[in-house]
Amino acid sequence: MVDDLRPGDTAALPSQLRRGVLEFCVLALLRNGERYAVELVSELGSKDGLVTSEGTLYPLLSRLRREGVVETTWRESPGGPPRRYYALTPAGRGVLDVFSAEWARFRDTVDGILEP
Amino acid sequence: MNTNAHPLVERYLRDLRAALRDMPRRQRDELVAEIAGHIEETLSPGASDAEVLTALDRMGEPEQIAAAERERLGIDEPTAGWLEWLTIPLLLLGGIVIPVVGWVIGLVFLWLSRAWTVRDKILATLLVPGGLLPAVYLVAAPITMQTCTGSTGTRNGRTVETGMHCTGGHSTAATIALIALFALLVVAPIYTAVRLGRRLPPARRPKLRRRLTGSHAVALFMFGIALGGSAVWYYLSTRPPGG
């Protein structure tokens, strides 16, 4: 990959950090029940420093669906076209639990090194 | 999709579609529909230009979205290299420089390239086979098939020609049709060439793969010239004398 993160390449830093965790953020937003795409994407897009291009979340959602961590259902919406709702699958919930535990450990470790 | 979408949104979706041209059609249609639906839903019907532009900024550059989709599908980014830039002149003029064969080489290059969609390729193949060659041929060929009929009669015991009636080539309608055909044969290949050029992805940073594609193309080109030359030589050497 051309864009492997190297020390000194700080411009790529946020995008590199984001890359790894974004999909887990999607899963986390679905923790409390299903949401439809526009709502999900808009919410992720409004978080500071998480997503620079909301459009790139749609390919991500497709990938998560194919990987079987989310499932989708079409539902009628009042006065609009049908909406595709995303929900966690049991596999997705498992992945999210593992990530949450790992992330807490990782974050504490990095914090401990950055702020001794 | 909304039929009365804001012009800026329409242009954005067109750009997105173009950026996704190398993806399978089904995936492309689905992604464009999702993005279109998102924009439509987040914008109020009477949104100002500024609001529309803000929404499109949030959505991101079509190229960024295409890059994300390419990554998901495991597709390499298409690049325009020597192959593509040789293809266009070969399709247009190759058939004239090396009769027919030059165009065929261009056709092979066209179908080898990954930078164009199958639709682009089919259109470029059919519009017009031979490039500008048919137009040149039309001009060079005797297009005025003028026929003269003479009638003979007997005058003073000798047979003479009493009249020569020439039906002057074509009727006006046929002449107009021929001119129209000529115009079509000139305009269509040029249109195709320009279109192919415009549909090429923007040049990227030089990559090893691109250089390989370039030398590959040059080798194919040399091979094509050799092939075309031997075809011409064969034709000339087997032509019956006086033919």
Account of the protein in words:
The complex is a heterodimer of chains A (116) and B (243). Chain A has 4 helices and 3 strands. Chain A is of the alpha+beta class. Chain A starts with 12 loop residues before the first helix and ends with a helix. The mean pLDDT of chain A is 86. A two-stranded antiparallel ribbon of chain B has the order 1-2. Chain B is flat, with a radius of gyration of 28 Å. By secondary structure, chain B is mainly alpha-helical. Chain B has helices at 7-19, 25-42, 49-59, 62-73, 82-97, 101-112, 118-126, 133-140, 172-198, 208-238, and strands at 147-155, 158-167. Chain A binds chain B through residues 37-38, 41-42, 45, 52-56, 58-60, 62-63, 80-81, 84, and chain B through 16, 27, 30-31, 34-35, 37-38, 41-42, 58-62, 64-65, 67-69, 71-72.
Helix and strand topology:
The complex is a heterodimer of chains A (116) and B (243).
Chain A: H1 13-29, E1 35-36, H2 37-46, H3 57-67, E2 70-77, E3 80-88, H4 90-114
Antiparallel strand pairs in A: 1-3, 2-3
Chain B: H1 7-19, H2 25-42, H3 49-59, H4 62-73, H5 82-97, H6 101-112, H7 118-126, H8 133-140, E1 147-155, E2 158-167, H9 172-198, H10 208-238
Antiparallel strand pairs in B: 1-2
Helix pairs in contact in B: 1-2, 1-4, 5-6, 5-9, 6-10, 8-9
